[in-house]
Write a structure and sequence with these properties.
Blueprint (H helix, E strand, L loop, with lengths): L15 H7 L2 E10 L2 E10 L9 H12 L6 E8 L4 E8 L4 E2 L3 H13 L6 E6 L2 E11 L4 E9 L2 E3 L1 H7 L2 H10 L2 E7 L1 E7 L4 H13 L12 E7 L4 E8 L3 E3 L3 H11 L7 E6 L2 E8 L3 E15 L2
Parallel strand pairs: 2-3, 4-6, 11-12, 13-15
Antiparallel strand pairs: 1-2, 1-17, 3-4, 4-5, 6-7, 7-8, 8-17, 9-10, 10-11, 12-13, 13-14, 15-16, 16-17
The structure holds ligand LBFN2T5F.
Length: about 300
Amino acid sequence: MPHRDPPLEDLTALSLFFLDKFSLDCKNIYLMRSQGNSFLIRVIGCEYQNEIFSLTQSVLECFFSVYTKHLVDQFVLLIYVKHSERWNIRFWNCDGSSAKACGNGTRCAAHLLYLLECSGSEMVFDGPIGELNTCVEKGEFEKKSCFVDVRQGKGRKLSLDFVRKKISKKKWEYFNRIGTHIGLVEFGNFHIIIVVDRDPVSCIEFYRKHFFESLEDCDCQDFFNISYLNFSSFRNANIATWERGVGPTPACGSAACAALMVLSEISPVSKILLNFPGGPIWVRYCPKFGYCHKAQSFYDLDISIP
Ligand SMILES: N[C@@H](CCC[C@H](N)C(=O)O)C(=O)O
């Protein structure tokens, strides 16, 4: 499902003025999509930064009450802190586990605030592991579809020993059997990138059948995001990702950054177009912001909180 027609529902406008003066809690949850990835996004306000930490349970209950009707990959909470006048962003996977980063979720969040006229095209979020910069580049259909660039940061490469200690022997052997090159990268969340010479989507199917659903394999809990990457040239590649806390996912922004970082171990490549099952993501390295990825984001629905 790479592209969708822009929806026609009316969007309830929310301004910073509204959030600041009349209510600290917007009464809607927004459904947004990017390259097939879907997100429920809630916007709230807080007086002080430390209040963010006491929100978790009520926020998750609210997300799950909407999730029963609108299945998504992640939940995203946007918190405007009045005292500092800054936007904070927090992510959860749909199994309720928290995520330290979410590239496509950040893209949709920036688009939403732009659409709601709570921000201009450039945006800085305080994320779980530091600042996330975004730039909304182009708006279509009354801004309901935009290209958004997310600056995900520098990330870091980690030793594969860490993977070997965390996963079963069977899984480790499988990765080494099919991988012509393997790398582990951290962008807040951990990504194993396995370069393969076959269709990445079929690798995800194999993984699901033999490692996730198989009772023989004792290492069933999700810890890593796992991407299979097949490239015919260093200009574009096919990729499919198994997302921690979600399963097979149509696309993943942070995996795109991790893939470029691992590919640069093989060749001096600094940008590439990655074709996910849900659509393309352009990823590049820039010295100022580190790994940046650009793709389209769509506003879908405005849901009243039950
Ligand atoms: N799809 C996301 C990654 C979300 C986080 C991941 N599931 C985790 O928990 O590590 C992206 O676009 O980056």
